[in-house]
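Hi all, long-time lurker, first post. I run a small reading group and we've been trying to get comfortable going from sequence to structure in the token notation. Rather than ask abstract questions, I figured I'd post a concrete chain and ask someone more experienced to write out its structure so we can walk through it together at our next meeting. Sequence below, copied exactly:
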Amino acid sequence: MLLPEIKEREYRFKLALRMVLPIFALVVAFIFHTFITSQNTLNTSFYVESILILVFSIYFIFYLIYKGFDTKITDSVSKAFTREYMYEYLKKEIKNSKEYTLILLSVDNLYEINSRYGIKIGDKVLFETLNWIAEFLKSKDIYNIPIGRIKGGDFIIGVYGNKNRYKTIIELMCLKSEDFKIDGIEIQISGAINDITFSKDIDYLIENLFELQNKIKNFKLTTNYIDEDINPNELEYNVINAIKRKNLVVYTQAVFEKESEVFKECSVKLKTEDERLLHQKNYMKILDKLRLMGDYDLMVLEKVIKMCIKSDGDKFAIQI
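-- Answer (accepted) --
Happy to help. Here is the structure in token form:
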């Protein structure tokens, strides 16, 4: 269960408890008056007091019900905190913390999903994406973190510590998300990270996160990846040629456990003759179809072994 859902339940429980208190007070008053009186019948003052308490209780209960509907903690679609509650929550956390980090995660293709598949599917994507993010962070021993929906497909996460502790984790998450799908729909996730060394003003921090995210997106646009809409025959040619020439690039991402680096996770891209990059999701099916998977795995393994020899005792993890 996400932290926003836990907080919502806590709030509803406290609200219900406050509704019961006036009735409880009336019962206590009745018992107390009964015990202290020596008369067989209750006098007029007790009835007056009971009526006043009952009237006050009814007013108080209706007031709390009205406030309960007026106060909203979680977003009805994603079950994350609402923007208003998240801002107030983060202000308190930042005020009482020496080190605190904010993370922006966005579903970049939410508009296309809503347009193509409908808003209900878009809502499902938001909910399941948030749960996927929470499960990924749990796998990195990050639990019960505040997650708020700022707008559209943009979410803010708050965590204790400086950004260096989480930067690699978020980069790895965005890398893993390239294979993330909901009902066959590809989900494009991007992120940015900053901490309170930049500013303790929540508005400045979040504004800066969006600026950082835009810079990252612009950088990706200028990166020389091959067009996903390339002709299948041309794509097959590029894949076969890259395997023959053993032309590939291995990117590494450090994986940490309690601030200590455990290993480096590897990600592989094939490179064409004109130095453009082929993403795994574009070429893996072709390798399997052409029965080149064994050649590819051997080529990757040879590359990683060379990296191990050159490294200073680093550990590398590669999926084969």
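A couple of things your group might point at:
The longest helix spans residues 3-36.
The first strand starts at residue 100 and ends at 107.
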